[in-house]
Amino acid sequence: MIELKYLSKTFQMKDGAVKALQNINLTIPDGAIYGIIGMSGAGKSTLVRLMTGIYLPESGKVEVGGQDTAKTDIRSLCAHTSAVFQQYLRYQLTLRQNVGISQTDRPAEDEKVRVACEQAGLRLLDEEIPQGYDTMLSREFDGVDLSGGQWQRVAIARGLFREHGFIVLDEPTAAIDPIEETRLYNRFAEIAKDKTAVVVTHRLGSVRLADRIAVMKEGVLVQLGTHEELLACPDGEYARLYRAQEQWYKNKPECV
């Protein structure tokens, strides 16, 4: 279980202090999938970095599995956690090494790499990776390069390869179109069964799969509920954002 209690976070910037989060209270039960949505700057990424222990709270408390992140060694917190962030690395390594680097004590055998790539929707033709999983992903080292969308899927495969009980996907799909992103997250929902998962996105079609959706606005948690519950509040932030985006998904019922 993940518990956020009266959580606030402020960053000191050149122009003064900026309140990224204000008085957040949220409980994510074990085995649940939660979505976190909101406009850019709403505090979504700050929130998940606090959940994973990358950031420590300015005030309030974060407990993961009963452990206070401010009092727990980061290695202990990360032992069963995996995360894929918006800003990911493109390692000048082979495809196998790019996937397996998330857990170096787990052998990156063909089948394990294949499963992670398949789960991430990474489909590469033989001519794209002539040496298979041992193809170097760097032209500087006589290898190949991938498209932005393919690299994003490599990063997701890396996160899925790591053994975990808690996983965060923090908008790692910017180079993937909204419909394909929704397909990927629907597949992710099947993979994440019996695990705790948090999906962060500004595209609402991708969070309908979540057990509950937390809606952020200017660092404040303004709504919490299922997709249907949130749409039932026509003047709410969720319904407003959904109306603004619905043309992305209209007439594509098989993809949502």
Count the helices. How many? 8
Strand content: 25-35%
Mean pLDDT: 90
Strand-pairing-aware structural class: alpha/beta
H/E element order:
EEEHEEHEHHHEHEEEHH
End-to-end C-alpha gap = 28 Å
Spans where pLDDT lies below 50 across 5 or more residues:
none
Principal-axis shape: globular
Q: What is the β-strand count?
A: 10
Please describe the biggest sheet, giving its number of strands, its sense, and whether it closes into a barrel: 6 strands, mixed
Give, in spatial order, the strands making up the sheet with the most strands: 6-7-8-3-9-10
Helix content class: 25-40%
Output the radius of gyration: 19 Å
Structure, explained:
This protein has 256 residues and is an alpha/beta fold. Helices cover 28% and strands 26% of the residues. It has helices at 44-51, 74-78, 95-100, 110-119, 148-161, 178-191, 227-231, 237-245, and strands at 2-13, 16-28, 33-37, 59-64, 67-68, 81-85, 166-170, 196-201, 212-217, 220-225. The strands form 2 sheets. A 6-stranded mixed beta sheet has the order 6-7-8-3-9-10, sandwiched between helices. A 4-stranded antiparallel beta sheet has the order 2-1-4-5. Helix 4 packs across helix 5 (148-161). The longest helix has 14 residues, at 148-161. The model has no long low-confidence stretch (mean pLDDT 90).
